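LAB NOTEBOOK - FOLDING QUEUE
OPERATOR: T.R.
BATCH SIZE: 2
PURPOSE: Compare the predicted structure-token outputs for two unrelated chains run back to back under identical settings.
PRIORITY: normal
REVIEWER: second-year student, initials M.K.

ITEM 1
FIELD SEQUENCE / FIELD STRUCTURE:
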Amino acid sequence: MCMNRVLLNTVFISCLMLGACKKKLPPPNPEVPVNLLKLTPKTVLYYENYPATTRALNQVNLLPQVSGAVTGMFFTEGTQVDKGQKLYEIDERLYKAAYDQAVANLNVSQSGLVEAQQDADRYVYLNKYNAVAKQLYDHAVVTLEQAKSTVKASEQQVKTAKTNLTYATVYAPFTGTIGISQVRLGEVVTPSVTTLDTLSQDNPMAVDFIINEKNLPFFEKLQHEKIKVDSLFSLLMPDNSLYAHLGKLSIIDRAVDPQTGTIRVRLVFDNPDHYLRAGMSCVVRVHNQDVAPQMVVPNKAIVEQMGEYFVYVAKDTVLKVSADSLKKLDKKAAADANKAKLIAVQKKVQTGQVIGPDIIIKSGIKAGDKIIVDGLQSLHDGARITTANKVGPGGGKGGRGQ
């Protein structure tokens, strides 16, 4: 009985294996179901975005020119100050004393000059009549010249003392916003070493950003031809709100950085409400000036490979099948074998501006091409594809930015 049962099980398993072998095997290269998009150029309006930084058109670190203790501060930190406004006062007692002494020395020198002038005049008169020794006359003339030189030296000492006394008070060199003071009352400062504060001009405000050298001709054209376009340069604030004022192209830097192939561009924005502050990170939006139709494809149709971008284009082709291969196919497969088929061809493209779910293609494809917009994860160059009675998968996992 046990032997018969083993034989029955063996026969049953053999039948199952035989039935499985008779099942139709899947084709070695199945067609990938996809959806296609026929390209048609169209006009698009968009902004090119550039990371930017706000900078003061004029900014200076306030440094003391004389040493001493800070005895006065005459401003409110973080507020606007006017040109010529008194900001700091450094202990001026020593400089006032030095000035007074220099003035006194000048008075003494001037008195000596008067005396020397009188003696010289007297000896000149006497010398005219040979009534005085020649040596006394010569000494009188030399003494007069020395007295004049002493007066000039004293005058320069007065100027120096007066300058030092003036430096004891620090004034605003221009109108702008002053920061938080780096020193406090009573603190001793040193010339050209201690920084008192920083003053920056904030209206108008500069905004700097970096462009690729390939875009340089476009910006040079804007600078030299003075093209007037509404909303050409606008600014996105750090919170992504749109700044109320439009910018103007001010400066293009003198040279391209040979290491990065980039160059700095500066815009100027009015800043009457002082919303812009130096050092802010923002985004410059440059209005698209290209009115020619452009190729626009869904962003998900882009495949990125090692920093390069590709799309798959559907191409008609005839796949020649050998006679031996035809014998192995059933009648329907053999009939369809040599018919025209769709295959996916990978094309390298140059991408442009992203516009919502779409992206501009600058080169690599042309009008009329049929690109594959889904199922990209199942494709490779030369893969067979189909759109007949099938719905392409939602795919797009290989798409740029996915």
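ITEM 2
FIELD SEQUENCE / FIELD STRUCTURE:
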Amino acid sequence: MSDLFVSNENMVYHTDFFHPNAKGYENMANRFIEKIDSCGLSEMSDGKLDM
């Protein structure tokens, strides 16, 4: 996930330039979803993780 925060060119930091802002958290959530989808966790959960 650290690659999402290498620079602030995508404007992912809060005004303190340390914490993620809403866009940063959205990017992190999307990354989690990508990883869950790629490993088949949703299928292994019998649909309990379907969103």
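REVIEWER COMMENT (ITEM 2): The CA atoms of residues 19 and 48 lie 31 Å apart.
FOLLOW-UP: none requested
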